[in-house]
Design a protein that fits this description.
Layout lengths: L1 H5 L4 H47 L1
């Protein structure tokens, strides 16, 4: 098992490459979802401010 993990001396490079790849996939998966939530929150705030302005002017 240790021979498999060591991969002929290249284990550190191979496993760190896999780890970086998985982290990149997670970021690629989560970033749009977080951005979507931020946009929804921003739009909700804008809508509230717009309604308050309309109520004041009416």
């Amino acid at each position: 098992m240790t021979d498999f993990l060591a991969m002929g001396g290249y284990g550190a490079y191979v496993w760190s490459s896999y780890a970086i790849f998985v982290v990149a996939l997670l970021i690629d998966f989560l970033a749009p979802r977080l951005r979507r939530q931020r946009v929804i929150t921003d739009l909700g705030g804008r809508l509230k401010r717009q309604r308050k302005r309309q109520e004041k002017s009416a």
